[in-house]
Structure formats: C-alpha cells, structure tokens
Design a protein that fits this description.
Layout (H helix, E strand, L loop, with lengths): L2 H11 L3 E7 L5 E7 L2 H4 L7 H18 L5 E5 L10 H6 L4 E10 L2 E14 L2 E8 L2 E6 L3 E6 L4
Parallel strand pairs: 2-3
Antiparallel strand pairs: 1-2, 4-5, 4-8, 5-6, 6-7
C-alpha cells in the first residue's frame, strides 16, 4: 500500500478528512493536515489539539506495523487559510472568498482572488468558477496550482 493511501485510510477510519499530505526530502518528515468531514463540520468546531494527538498516535502505530521509516510526524489542522485540493473542496466551500494560483498564466496573470462560485462541468472538463468584480471567470481545475480560503477576522 502506498504511503498516501495508508495515511488516508487511517485518517478516514478515525472519522476525519485528509486535506493534504507533505513530505520532506527522502520522506524523513511527514506532515499531515486533517479536517472534519463536511457532514461533521456543522456539528462541531474545527480541529482540536486532541484530534491531532489521536490521529498522530494512530498513525504512529500504523507506521510501526507497516514498517514506514520516518523521523518526525506532524499532524495539524489546515488552518483558517485552508487549501482547496480536491474537486469536492471547490464544491464544499462555494460562497467563500479564495485565492488561486494557476500553473499556466492566463495572459500575464497567474494569481486571482474572488468569491468561489463552485465547480461546473463543461465538455468533460471541470471548471472552477470565481466571481471577481461582478464577473464570473472560469479556470480549468487541472490548471490550478494552489487554492486557499481567505480567512475572515
């Protein structure tokens, strides 16, 4: 089983959602970002220290059994500026302000921010809809390098 699959299976099995997973060179440090699934989001607040500790403890045991070699494991919440990674994230956070960075610039611009209108399918291509200054712009999902929520204070 691949490391990403192993982590995702464990995190989902504990009732959380795997948002993102990062490794350092040679996978010596593993960084796991977790969140509550959409169905749980309304019932409870964000991720607590206890949530992170529970996932960290379980992953440590799984890594021991599966003989995963690493030096350090970090488990944390995605933060207020949560990254949007999967297509489901773009649907889930529709109506919120986001910042996008494109892989391939559109004209001479690579960074965009606005109100996320969601995701729609156009001729088999998933398009992210972003409202900027009363105009809706569409970007191919596969052209989005990074997307993050803009925190409101």
């Amino acid at each position: 089983m691949q490391l990403l699959e192993l982590i995702e299976t464990t995190v989902v099995g504990l009732g959380y959602e795997l948002v993102e997973f990062e490794t350092s060179p040679r996978a010596r440090m593993l960084r796991v970002f977790i969140d509550r699934p959409e169905s749980e989001q309304a019932k409870k607040s964000g991720i607590s220290v206890e949530d992170c500790a529970a996932v960290s403890s379980q992953l440590s045991r799984v890594f021991l059994v599966e003989n995963v070699d690493y030096d350090r494991l970090e488990v944390s919440s995605p933060g207020l500026d949560r990254p949007l990674v999967k297509a489901a994230d773009f649907r889930r956070f529709a109506g919120q302000e986001v910042q996008l960075k494109l892989r391939v610039p559109l004209g001479n611009q690579r960074n965009f921010s606005g109100l996320l209108e969601g995701l729609k399918d156009e001729a088999g291509v998933e398009m992210v809809c972003l409202r900027m200054n009363d105009t809706v712009h569409q970007f191919a999902l596969e052209n989005i390098d990074r997307a993050r929520l803009v925190p409101k204070f």
